[in-house]
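Q: Got a minute? One more chain.
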Amino acid sequence: MPYPITIESLIPHRDRMKLIDEIVDITDHSAITRTTVSSRLPLYRDGHVDSLIIIEIVAQTAAVHVSWRKDTAGKAGGGLLAGVKSADFFMEWVPLQTILTTTVKPLYSADGYTVLEGTVQAEKDLVGRVEIQVIRFEEEPQPDREGVFKEGV
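A: Always. Here it is, folded:
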């Protein structure tokens, strides 16, 4: 059964860039999502998807977790992917129709900076493990009249 919160209410991604199909569970300590590999995903070619896609799947699952935690705390704001701290891939390609289960857990946070670990599995097989760095902000950044986002927001 799908989680009662919609993915679209937690992340800005739409159409081909929305890689998560279902929220399985969210707690203060983790988020679990599912993605079915299909030809609509970026990096699709010849019946499979490049395993690099798991970096974005982990990032979107992290965004689900961060957004949900802010919503439940009654806070505004969001976050931006600042970097990939590490990534280990155990498959080169992921075949179509593979169901990927992604689990993201925060490892540590300080002053608007969080490192999260994501693992991606296809049934019992580990597809990859990714650590990402996220910069959190208390208010949504607003562009100036030229459409440029100001520093320090």
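A: Helices lie at 53-73.
Q: Perfect, thanks.
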